[in-house]
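> tool_call: predict_assembly(chains=two)
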Amino acid sequence: MANTALADPDAGLTQAQLAARYGLRVAGERPPLAEYTRRLWHYRHFVAAYANAKLVASFSNARLGQLWQVLTPLTNAAVYYLIFGLVLEQKSIPNFIAYLCTGLFIFNFTQTSVQNGTRAISGNLGLIRALHFPRACLPLAITVTQFQQLLGSLVVLVAIVLVTGEPITLAWLVLVPAVLLQTVFNAGLTMVVARMGAKLADLKQVMPFLLRAWMYGSGVLYSVTLFEENLPGWATRLVEVNPILVYIELARVALLEDAPVLNSSLPRLWLVAAGWAIVMGIGGFLYFWRGEQEYGRG
Amino acid sequence: MADQYETSNAVTMPLPRVQERIPTVVVDDAHVIYRVHKGASGGTSPVAALRRMVTRTTAPNIREVHAVKGVTFTAYRGEAIGLIGSNGSGKSTLLRAIAGLLPVNRGAVYTQGQPSLLGVNAALLNDLSGERNVVLGCLAMGMTPAEVQRQTPEIIEFSGINQRGDFASLPMRTYSSGMAARLRFSIAAAKKHDVLLIDEALATGDKGFRKRSEQRVRELRESAGTVFLVSHQLSSIRDTCERTIWLESGVLRMDGPTDEVVRAYEEFANGK
């Protein structure tokens, strides 16, 4: 009515032609990959602020506040040490407590990233439906938050390692690239589960099982040599390339003098670690980007 | 009362028509169908969930709702358009489709720039202070840190949450619903949007804030934006919009000057 009442130079055009004439674009269209990446870079401050805010918020109701960032890994380590170090004593591993904590903290980094990642979209629908930003910011922010948590854990870990009598060596420096590779891997994986969790509400229920199975397959709680002794050869080869096991072994090699390892060849270990980071980092990003339009649907 | 509306319309109606009318939103026979989870009754256990994932069946209780059925219209730069209709007539769904958040199943929605949807439920982080929420919200809208720093005091000032003491430093969960809505509106209104979609946000807040927000909407329109307003309060539609679209059961029932459409809608609503 209001449209037709006026003499209009655009009269006679169909809606689509009108849109094309004035350069309008389809609402919510997915930007091309390069443009998307550029936008994501533009939003890096948002990722940092959001990650920081989440970290603060997660402790805001606790009386001890941010102290929990260190207390949580400590308590965890104490409980597992009680069970696996004292009750089910493991004699085969020298310095078991340090061995256990290294595995536990490194595994926990990926585990919590994945757990929170499944809710990255579904838990932030309010934000997603109100504001436009590249959605990849959310899983990335989760990875950054967990990375900050990991730094807290690493402080505890270094203390434990030193107290249990390990010497400080140059090999410790290797921990830095190892953790960075794992962070890239986690970012990719978090983006994958974020997209899957946005569509499959049931994923949240299944995740604890998958993660527990993954933990047992990563030799966190017991000696990794058990895999070689009890599994057929092909299964051992499979466990050897398990990404978390690889990252844990790198950390153990860096921090501990004589921890048992499954991958005896160090160059191969690094190759697998870097390979996983590249494949998962790029693959996860591409997979997440392809779903960009649908995240508001919930 | 009626006289009052007449005069307020007399002020807003003869807005100088821009010579060339530039369309900002073109909606072409849009159909939106979305799926609703009714809440699973058949097996929420992990095993049942796993079985569903493996067999690739969807949860048993999903129903499709055809909320918008073939709506066509064009919105121009500088217009404020009211969207009215009974509850469940598809108004909010249409806004989401324009914002690009719900993909259309048939037809198309074309927009200028990136429309921004401002709803009452657009929650930020409730555990964080109001001030931090402002910073996050601004960054999420794509502002640079320098801009954010400059704008934050203005936004808090505009929202008026500090009128009863220093609320900006308290977590947002301690806010009343009106205060939270005011802060959210203030954040979203801090940026210039090509197209701003407002879902009932102006209804919240006290009289003073309503005045300020209506003023802000007017400014946004003057800076060549287009504003859509969904509201059940016909008075706020009358005050801010000169054009109104009436949706009923997902179908565009009427599109024209606010006066005519609102009158027809009122007759319809009273006659029901």
